[in-house]
Amino acid sequence: MLELIGIFFSSMGIGFSGALMPGPMLSVTIAESYKKGFWAGPLIVLGHAIPEFVLMVLFSLGLNSLIKNHMAQGIIGIVGGVFLAWLGVRIFLEVRQGITIDLTAKTEVGWGPVGAGVWTSVSNPGWIIWWATIGAKYIMISLQHGVVGLAFFFVGHEMADLIWYSMVSFFVSRGRGRISDRVYHVVLYICSLMVIGFALLFITNGILTLLKT
C-alpha cells in the first residue's frame, strides 16, 4: 500500500511541475474561465484527461510485455530521467528569469472547455514526448501493481492539473489579474528540485537495471 501511495503523490508532484508552467492549456483555461466561470477549469482538465487515459491504456498494453525485460526498463528509466532533468532545469531557469502568470491573457479556441482540453493535449508535441519517456517509466512501475497501480498513477497525475487549473479558474472568475509572483516562484523552485531529484532516481535506477542484463 505504501508503494501505491508513493506512486500517487510522486506522479502528482511531477504533474504539478508540468501544470504550473505557462502553455496552451493555461491560455485556454483563462479564456474559458472569463466566459463560463469557475467550472471551465475542471472541464478543461476533464477534456485533457480523456486522451491521456487513452494513451495510458495503449502504452500499458505495449509495455506490459516489457515489465520483466531489464534492458527495456533500464533504457526507459534513463531516457525518462534525462527528460525529467531537462524539465527540472528548465523550470529553475524560468524562475530565475522572472516568469510570471498573467491571468488577463486570452486565447480563444471555440470548442468549449472539454474540447479545448482535448485540443491542448493532442496538439502539443511535448505531451507525447512526456508520455513516451516519463509516463512510460511510471506506467511500468505502476503495472507491477496491476490495474490498481495504474489507477493510483493516473488519478495522482490528473489531480495536479485539476488542483492548479481549478485555482486559475477561481482567480479569473473572481476578477483577479495576477497570482503572487513570490508564491509562484517558491512553488516552482520546490517543483524543480523535486523533479531533478526524481530524475537522478530514474537515471540511477535505469543504470542499475541495465547492469543486471
Short description:
The chain has 213 residues and is mainly α.
Description:
The two termini are 29 Å apart. By secondary structure, this protein is mainly α. The protein has eight helices and no strands. It has one domain (2-211).
- Termini separation: 29 Å
Low-confidence stretches: none
Kindly provide the radius of gyration, computed on alpha-carbon positions and rounded to a whole number of angstroms.
Answer: 17 Å
Strand content: under 5%
Q: Structural class, from helix and strand content?
A: mainly alpha
Helix content: over 70%
What number is the mean pLDDT?
A: 84
Order of helices and strands: HHHHHHHH
List keywords for this structure.
about 210 residues; single chain; globular; 8 helices; mainly alpha
List the helices and strands and how they pair.
Blueprint: H1 2-19, H2 24-36, H3 40-63, H4 70-96, H5 112-122, H6 125-143, H7 146-173, H8 181-211
Helix pairs in contact: 1-7, 1-8, 2-5, 2-7, 3-5, 3-6, 3-7, 4-6, 4-8, 6-7
